[in-house]
Specification:
Layout (H helix, E strand, L loop, with lengths): L4 H22 L6 H7 L4 H7 L3 H23 L6 H16 L6 H8 L10 H20 L8 H19 L7 H19 L12
Helix pairs in contact: 1-2, 4-5, 4-6, 4-7, 5-9, 8-9
């Protein structure tokens, strides 16, 4: 019997919901695909029809959260922000969406978004990277950078962004205030790098 698209979507959402609960209660490392399949009421083989690995499943959650962050940013931006402010708003919009996943985010990002060469690329991780950088390019274009920054500049941005994610995932400061300071510094540093001008100093951005 052919399964309808609606049933497939409902099953996918159930898998993601059960996986989130297990990742939060047991931790990402200690949760197995068998655990997730059992919680979702599926055979393990059926789970693999939707997600080929635990890492892909978890990164799907991250990807959806980051996509939501992009939409949030587009709704929140007023087009009167300077480039540093726009990038700050963009990055923090993504972190707000990622917040429910924060307890297990570290190992997921380490496996799926690591800048080091890997034998296998996580498709969901690569999709998240490309979508994120495409929006950065759009932001830069709206602020006068009509020619796309070169590979080196975007590599610098992505390295700074991954550093922010890694720091935020383990930031124990109140309301992760240390992370907001790091974002402020990193966005200013990036703008200085691509523009050749000194960034404004001493003024933080509100969360």
């Amino acid at each position: 019997m052919r399964i309808s698209q609606q049933v497939k979507e409902e099953t996918r959402e159930r898998i993601l919901a059960m996986a989130t609960q297990l990742f939060l209660s047991k931790g990402f490392e200690d949760t197995t695909t068998r655990d997730i399949a059992a919680a979702a009421g599926l055979a393990t083989g059926t789970l693999f029809n939707y997600f080929p690995s635990k890492e892909t499943l978890a990164m799907s959650m991250v990807n959806e959260a980051l996509s939501g962050g992009i939409e949030d940013y587009r709704q929140r931006c007023c087009d009167d922000e300077d480039l540093v402010e726009a990038l700050f708003l963009f990055v923090t919009s993504g972190l707000r969406r990622l917040r429910p996943l924060r307890p297990f985010l570290g190992p997921v990002l380490e496996r799926s978004l690591s800048p080091f060469p890997r034998k296998a690329i996580c498709p969901e991780g690569e999709s998240a990277r490309q979508e994120h950088l495409a929006e950065v390019q759009n932001i830069l274009g709206r602020h006068g950078f009509t020619a796309a920054p070169d590979y080196v500049a975007m590599t610098i941005y992505w390295s700074l962004y991954l550093g922010i994610l890694a720091f935020w995932a383990n930031d124990e400061s109140p309301q992760q205030e240390a992370t907001w300071a790091l974002i402020d510094y990193s966005t200013q540093l990036f703008v200085q790098t691509i523009s050749g001008t000194n960034p404004c100093t001493g003024a933080g951005h509100a969360d």
